[in-house]
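Incident log, support desk, overnight shift.

02:14 A customer reports that sequence design results differ from what the structure should imply. Their input is reproduced verbatim below. On-call engineer (initials T.W.) acknowledged and began investigating.
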């Protein structure tokens, strides 16, 4: 059996076990992550240095191999037919190649199938603005964005442009026409891609991840020019999202300007976690921040410490705190209170909400 067949067997096992990730590291057997937990594949021997290199290079083309050897790391993707595609990060550790393979399913689930808040349907209808999906790595940000973009594709005659590193979910044009651009394959830099996107007649733009000052600044400019922009960010809460965006800019006038820019264009922030369910699997708990006057004022004035309280007292306009979402899952018998406490940012607030729910019932 050649190396491509071997890695395909591991991919098929990853899909069969409904794992989110496959890890190949020297001196360890292949590991899978299922429902957020890692475990070794049974009956698999520890991998040698040559094993890992051969398996990774079996799914990389010549150019990708050269980049991996030169830069010591690379993000790329690999199409695995009907079972989906893999987002791959190849990297070196202890002078040996390793890789993490994220399984991206072929099927793009809907907002309702994913049990996401109904406000996500409204985000898909916007003509302009900035919508961010945030949360830790591995907590479904890409899946949530894909569900919203799929709704845009089904319902709107528009031009949707994605800029990703690498492309994860692939879309077939429905009502929308879709251009999906992958770093190192379709463009050589975020800066060039974001600069040229305005000349590509887009209506909706998805920026795979806002990584640095240049990317954030360019994405804000695209939103400012009357487009609907979606992106992701690794932060733990809606309020922290604002601080992360602002703090990446130099102190002084630049930060004042970006506060003003963001307050003018942002439409909403979805901060989410995937929580282990009582019946297996993982369920989304979401914090929703919307562009109310109070939130915009807090952003402009640099008073992000007030945002948590604004979210907690603005449920009537569609905002949801993470603790409210967790408490609802507990009251519905979908997750345990103990697990909810592990994920809560404000455990005392969760305790208060759960106690109130139990009294009401």
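02:41 Re-run completed on a clean worker. Output:
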């Amino acid at each position: 059996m050649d190396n491509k067949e071997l890695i395909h067997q591991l991919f098929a096992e990853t899909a069969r076990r409904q794992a989110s990730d496959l890890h190949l590291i020297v001196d360890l057997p292949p590991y899978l992550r299922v429902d957020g937990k890692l475990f070794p594949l049974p009956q698999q021997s520890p991998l040698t240095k040559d094993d890992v290199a051969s398996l990774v290079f079996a799914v990389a083309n010549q150019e990708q191999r050269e980049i991996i050897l030169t830069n010591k790391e690379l993000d790329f993707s690999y199409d695995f037919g009907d079972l989906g595609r893999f987002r791959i990060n190849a990297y070196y550790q202890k002078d040996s190649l390793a890789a993490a393979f994220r399984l991206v399913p072929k099927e793009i689930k809907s907002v309702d199938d994913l049990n996401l808040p109904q406000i996500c349907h409204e985000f898909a209808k916007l003509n302009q603005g900035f919508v961010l999906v945030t949360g830790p790595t591995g907590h479904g940000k890409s899946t949530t964005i894909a569900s919203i973009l799929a709704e845009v594709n089904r319902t709107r005659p528009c031009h949707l442009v994605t800029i990703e590193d690498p492309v994860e979910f692939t879309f077939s044009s429905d009502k929308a026409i879709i251009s999906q651009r992958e770093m190192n394959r379709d463009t050589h830099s975020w800066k060039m891609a974001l600069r040229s996107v305005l000349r590509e007649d887009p209506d909706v733009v998805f920026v795979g991840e806002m990584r640095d000052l240049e990317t954030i600044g360019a994405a804000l400019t695209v939103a400012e020019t009357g487009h609907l922009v979606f992106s992701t960010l690794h932060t733990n809460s809606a309020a922290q999202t604002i601080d992360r965006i602002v703090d990446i800019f130099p102190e002084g006038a630049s930060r004042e300007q970006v506060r003003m820019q963001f307050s003018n264009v942002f439409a909403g922030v979805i901060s989410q976690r995937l929580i282990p369910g009582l019946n297996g699997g993982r369920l989304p708990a979401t914090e929703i921040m919307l562009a109310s006057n109070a939130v915009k004022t807090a952003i402009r004035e640099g008073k992000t410490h007030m945002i948590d309280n604004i979210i907690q007292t603005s449920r009537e306009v569609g905002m949801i705190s993470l603790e409210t979402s967790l408490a609802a899952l507990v009251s519905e018998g979908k997750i345990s209170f103990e697990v909810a406490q592990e994920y809560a940012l404000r455990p005392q607030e969760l305790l208060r909400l759960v106690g109130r729910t139990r009294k009401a019932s």
